[in-house]
Write a structure and sequence with these properties.
31% helix; 4-stranded mixed sheet; 8 helices; UDP-N-acetylmuramoyl-L-alanine:D-glutamate ligase; 9-stranded mixed sheet; alpha/beta; binds alpha-D-ribofuranose
């Protein structure tokens, strides 16, 4: 079983030729909506990877909630842990430019009402994989990490979006997944030593006994664990839209850990899935199914 404790958003997406400068008004080449939120994206990715997944989170009592949950429902993610809150459904305002780059502003709404009380019904089990991100209150993330540890589960903390005050949480997770920018921003707070990023990752793993995984976009993924270092490549692609690529990676990571695949193979699959997620617009609509990942790896 894979459990995601995290955010659910409706993404409001405007395509632009280039990202606007401060004070500038641009015309969009097209507007669309799609289900999103880092937690929900990771839950759907784990389900499309073949996992049995449940989601703990909150949406508002508004028209956006139905669309925000549509792909999770279709993907058979268990939603009994998703509460209706007296707040608006979380939204993300997203601009995607002609090169597939994006900027995102989130209005958390109901996601901010996901509190440690929501964990009461979670009843985490031994061996359960629990995925977390930074789009719900950090106190809830911390309480979840403690509860998972107590239950003998395995926690995976994705450090997105970067929040400086979350630094102390990284050592509490069994697996930490950061992109290169996020990891580098935590180096000082965690007092990590070493001449380069790889050495600092090894230092984190040595000091905490945990595994840290850093995603490098087109350069693939590197990891440092108590068993040693790993590196796997990304697929060679031309990105259309990178929104949700990191979430797809995390969901596939959770699914691989859940079935006990070796870490290197899990990372290879997750990196390939993350690459494939860049080939279509939107976060959840772009998440590949396991078969597509198998085919992409086989034809490499
Ligand atoms: O990681 C991508 C996600 O970030 C989007 O789906 C958006 O909702 C924001 O949470």
């Amino acid at each position: 079983m894979i459990t995601v404790v995290g955010s659910i958003n409706l993404d409001l997406i405007a395509a632009v030729e280039r990202l606007p400068a401060p004070g500038e008004t641009l015309r969009s080449g097209g507007f669309s909506t799609a289900p999103g939120g880092k937690g929900a994206n990771q839950a759907l990715a784990a389900a499309r990877a073949g996992g049995e997944v449940r989601m703990i989170g909150a949406v508002g009592r508004d028209g956006f909630a139905t669309e925000a949950l549509a792909c999770l429902k279709e993907g058979k993610v268990q939603l009994s842990g998703v509460r209706e809150a007296a707040a608006a459904t979380g939204i993300a305002l997203i601009f995607v430019d002609g090169k597939g780059e994006n900027v995102i502003v989130i209005a958390p709404g109901a996601n901010d009402t996901v509190l440690s009380g929501d964990l009461a019904r979670a009843n985490f089990r031994k061996g359960e994989i629990v995925l977390l991100q930074h789009e719900i209150p950090l106190d809830t993330v911390e309480a979840t990490l403690s509860a998972v540890r107590q239950a003998g589960g395995v926690s995976v903390l994705n450090t997105a979006p970067f929040r400086a005050e979350a630094a102390k949480l990284l050592a509490m997770a069994d697996f930490v997944v950061a992109n290169e920018t996020e990891f580098d921003l935590y180096v000082d707070a965690l007092k990590l030593e070493g001449a380069d990023r790889k050495a600092r990752m090894a230092d984190f793993s040595r000091k905490t006994g945990r595994t840290v995984i850093v995603t490098l976009g087109a350069e693939g993924v590197i990891a440092a664990s108590p068993e040693g270092d790993l590196a796997v490549p990304a697929l060679k692609i031309t990105p259309v839209d990178t929104v949700g690529a990191g979430d797809t990676f995390c969901g596939y990571l959770g699914a691989g850990l859940d079935v006990g695949l070796p870490l290197e193979e899990t990372l290879r699959r997750a990196a390939a899935a993350g690459s494939l997620a860049c080939l279509k617009p939107g976060a959840q609509p772009a998440i590949p199914h396991a078969k597509e990942v198998d085919e992409a790896l086989a034809s490499r």
